[in-house]
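Quick one, probably user error.
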């Protein structure tokens, strides 16, 4: 039965019949849950301090009461209902959701990063504070969304926001990739330390023992922190710690940039070059999930112009292909 709310085992320690008042702080989270489970009155918006979310409505499947708590408690159908906290609400409704997300902050980043580095494809290196960690990205193997959690939930409503405590419970039970312990030479460790910045030295001190014992995860973490000159050196020194890179480029982050969605050439540059297309979408990242071969791996060309691909000599012994745009006359 679609959208039917099903209790879970975690509800055994919570009241069977419960309510939670809607506030400015919890409205978005409660609304997302109600949109998933309600089969009636889904278009009705929750109002802070004038709506109450319920475990069940006494006569429909809306899962909310359109008034304040005082009015709810005065209703005979809800005499036995008990108020719960937002934390209890999360435990009852989604203790271990299939699709979860959590925003990376200064406080939780180290913990989230460790899981991300063990589970994401090795070709992704841009996870950072302010991004959102996800259980599984719908479009790629990055395991993160390049933006804040509110934006992530707007784009992917199937995800459920979890707390750090829930993240710990989920990843402890579901983590499939364990970090393998390895040992590097003391000479190589000293080489890394001598070339490191202060932050990198702190990382080395924390994750590498004096005898060179460390983990594959720590090697990958060091690689992510390293400057562009040291990244290839670290990969060359520890090839077993890095999966084989895909031959494809990943343009997903560029495609998700707010205000410049999918654009490769910005609107002001298009205008300065004489291109008249209003939205500046002269060349854009292909953003179509129905074709994985091109999705976020390719560019597409505006249909406002004609395009001609020609060979124009060679460079370094290789043929050079050029793309010529021309104006459409009709």
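Nope, works fine. Designed sequence:
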């Amino acid at each position: 039965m679609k959208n039917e709310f099903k209790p879970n085992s975690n509800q055994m320690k919570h009241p069977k019949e419960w309510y939670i008042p809607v506030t400015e702080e919890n409205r978005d989270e409660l609304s997302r849950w109600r949109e998933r489970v309600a089969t009636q009155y889904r278009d009705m918006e929750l109002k802070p301090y004038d709506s109450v979310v319920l475990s069940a409505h006494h006569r429909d499947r809306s899962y909310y009461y359109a008034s304040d708590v005082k009015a709810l408690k005065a209703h005979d159908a809800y005499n036995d209902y008990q108020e719960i906290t937002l934390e209890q609400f999360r435990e009852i409704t989604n203790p271990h959701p299939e699709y979860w997300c959590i925003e990376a902050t200064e406080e939780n980043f180290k913990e989230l990063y460790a899981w991300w580095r063990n589970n994401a494809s090795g070709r992704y290196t841009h996870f950072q504070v302010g991004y959102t960690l996800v259980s599984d990205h719908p479009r790629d193997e990055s395991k993160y969304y390049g933006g804040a959690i509110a934006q992530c939930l707007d784009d992917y409503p199937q995800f459920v926001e979890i707390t750090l405590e829930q993240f710990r419970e989920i990843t402890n039970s579901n983590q499939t990739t364990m970090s393998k312990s390895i040992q590097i030479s003391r000479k190589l460790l000293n080489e890394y330390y001598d070339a490191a910045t202060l932050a990198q030295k702190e990382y080395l001190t924390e994750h590498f023992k004096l005898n060179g014992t460390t983990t594959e995860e720590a090697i990958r973490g060091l690689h992510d922190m390293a400057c562009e000159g040291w990244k290839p050196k670290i990969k060359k020194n520890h090839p077993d710690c890095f999966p084989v890179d895909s031959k494809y480029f990943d343009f997903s982050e560029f495609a998700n940039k707010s205000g410049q969605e999918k654009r490769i050439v910005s609107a002001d540059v298009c205008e300065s070059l004489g291109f008249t297309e209003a939205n500046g979408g002269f060349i854009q990242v292909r953003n179509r999930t129905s074709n994985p071969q091109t999705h976020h791996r390719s560019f597409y060309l505006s249909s406002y112009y004609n395009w001609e691909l020609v060979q124009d000599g060679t460079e370094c012994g290789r043929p050079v292909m050029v793309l010529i745009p021309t104006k459409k006359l009709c």
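Residues 1-12, 173-178 have pLDDT under 50 and may be disordered.
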